């Protein structure tokens, strides 16, 4: 069970690092929309999710976040969800042989 928890934590870190985006022009941090379905796990606000990301992703993410705030020239940032297209890039019905 310990290995499963460790693996889930690692996959969560990888997912967040890959999918959280910073838009300096709009002064917005874009969070994966799928996380909105699990908001109760992080807290009631988007800022709770950002706090969670800062906690589990540690110094590398905190450095990216601080650089973003510096480049955006603001202390107040906006948080928004961005949808992701999960449409497969191929079809299992296609024959490749």
Give the gist of this structure.
By secondary structure, the chain is of the alpha+beta class. The chain has three helices and three strands, in the order αββααβ. Strands 1-2-3 form a three-stranded mixed beta sheet.
Textual characterization of the structure:
There is one protein chain. Helix content is 51%, strand content 13%. With 97 residues, it is α+β, with helices and mostly antiparallel strands. Strand 1 (21-23) and strand 2 (28-32) form a beta hairpin.
Considering the chains and any ligands shown, give keywords for the structure.
97 residues, alpha+beta, three-stranded mixed sheet, 3 strands, globular
